[in-house]
Amino acid sequence: MARRSRPESAPVPGDVLDPRNDVIAAGPPQRSVTPTDEVVHRATGARGTVEKWHRDWVVLRLRGGSTRRVNNLAGGFSMHGETFSLTGVSRTPTSTAVRRTASGSIAAPDSGAKVARASRLWVEGDHDARLIERVWGDDLRDAAIVVEPLGGIDDLDAAVARFGPGPQARLAVLVDHLVPGTKEWRLTENQRSGASPDVTVVGHPFVDVWQCVRPGAVGITSWPEVPKGEDWKTGICRRLGWGTPQDGWRRILASVDSFSDLDPTLVGAVESALDALIDLT
């Protein structure tokens, strides 16, 4: 005869031997917040509403209007004196619905066309620019930031010198395959060294921005390996039966609806770039 499991019972209040009554062992409570709740990031003291939530990081909208990205750790936040682990932003319906952009930001009210800032976000190619526009387009328009494809970073130092970055004309550069020991790492060394406080170099570890789209979003289990020396995009499309690279790119771009379809390394890199360009306080 199979043994019957004992029914689950509630912890007995005051029973110190019941681990369910051990608050320390249980860890800090988990909770979500609303878009209007003001929280405190305990490690940094940053105080603001939650602009974006990710399991590893959170973007706070500070009281002065600027944003700050902080680590999302267990027990990392507090509100009204209560310490808790932040698990997300609730979507509780209110009289005025909160609209979010594809990047997860709270959408700003439509204020019409704006004059572009002098600051720029540089990317390596057209595909990078279009992918960023698809996810962060609303944020870029609200901040009046222009994304410009470079066509590669072989002459990055010269391009930066021509641009002439300054406090009101900052520059952020998003680089593919930014990994120690690579050509991209060497080509960006001068700009990453902090020679100019108005230049920020960010990147992701993938050979091409296509790989920054999660495989599941495009209906595959993983991105195929392409041998060195073979054109990467052509090799990907051949192995997946996607036709030409143009056909493959249309499929990839159409599969992206929000930041959740992208690898966190790209999301974090773009958020860091926008923080550097927008926060001019």
TrEMBL record:
Domain DUF3097: 119-276
Stretch list, region Disordered: 1-36
Source domain of life: Bacteria
Protein name: DUF3097 domain-containing protein
